[in-house]
Each structure stands twice: as structure tokens, then as C-alpha cells.
Amino acid sequence: MTYPIYVYGHPVLRKIAKDIEKDHPDLDTLIADMFETMYNSDGLGLAAPQIGKSLRIFVIDGEPLGEDHPEMKDFKKVYINPRVVERKGEIVPMNEGCLSLPGIHEEVDRESELRIQYYDQEWNYHDEVYNGYKARVVLHEYDHLDGVLFTDRLSPLRRRLIKGKLNDLTRGKFTADYRTVLPAGK
Ligand code: NI
Known about the structure:
Elements: E1 5-6, H1 27-40, E2 45-47, E3 57-61, E4 76-96, E5 106-119, E6 125-131, H2 132-145, H3 156-161, H4 163-170, E7 180-181
Parallel strand pairs: 1-7
Antiparallel strand pairs: 2-3, 3-4, 4-5, 5-6
The protein binds nickel (II) ion.
Residues 98-100, 140, 144 line the site of nickel (II) ion.
């Protein structure tokens, strides 16, 4: 099942998401639906709050980036109850977009390296270190679980410059080729 994407301004995107219990009902279905929803909206990653579920889980498939970033080609993963336990390396700018902010793309500064601990779909525990594009995509998705959007990480000046566009999003003045849920619930 393809879910609609919740758009900027919706309160679910600002909540601190809750850990998932091991006996969470239909977790496999949720994960399959998250991948399906992500593929149908041409996203590289999708976090549960973006489909209106305040749960600590996100999915990533870097395949579309594979040509320019070979390390992303087989980077398909599910992150359950992840914890970023270390951020290091240089702070680097990179262009980001988000399915919850259709039409907005900005340079975002983030650490170039991280260490993350998480469970996969079979509840196997992982402790991994990423850098480059992997770190970028993971940090973006991880932010969603804490109610943080990439526009929060822009300079005050840059944020002011796109304020009009953000307001338009909350009012439904945007185009997206996937179904969306607006803040007013329309
Ligand atoms: Ni996003």
C-alpha cells in the first residue's frame, strides 16, 4: 500500500517519534509499505513520521544515486530504533531535498561521518560507521525521528529567504506527483 506523504507544517513531522516494540503488529507490512511509498514518490529515504506514524524507523534505497555514487548502489536498508552515537569529520554542505518539502532544495551543513546503532527488519543489531553520501542520507532521515527538518539547519538568513515557500507548503500551494497530507488534514 502506498501512503500519502505528510507535508511541512503537519505536527506529526515535529514529534519525537517513539521506539518500536519487538511485537509491533504488522511490522513487515509497514516496512514493505514504506519502501513502496518511497519508490512511488522517487525518494531515496523515507521516515515513518512522513507517512503520519510517529515511530522510530526509516528506510533507505540509494540505488538511484548509484551511477554518480557507486557506494550507494546496493545501499538498501531498514533502520529500526536507530541511535546515532557519534558524529564526526568535517562539516560539509550538500544539496538536500525532502518528500515532505516538495520543491525545496537547499545546501545543508552536516558532519561527514557518523556511527549508528540500530536493528534491521529481522531484529539483528548493527553498529556501523558511514561517511560521504551514506552519512548524509542517514543523518537526514534520522532527523525526521526527532522532529527535525532540513530547513531547520539552514542559516537564519537562508531560512528567511525561503519563508514564503515554506508558508506556501503549509497552505497546499505546491505541486508534487505523489499524494500528500496537508497540515490542515485536507
Ligand atoms: Ni526528508
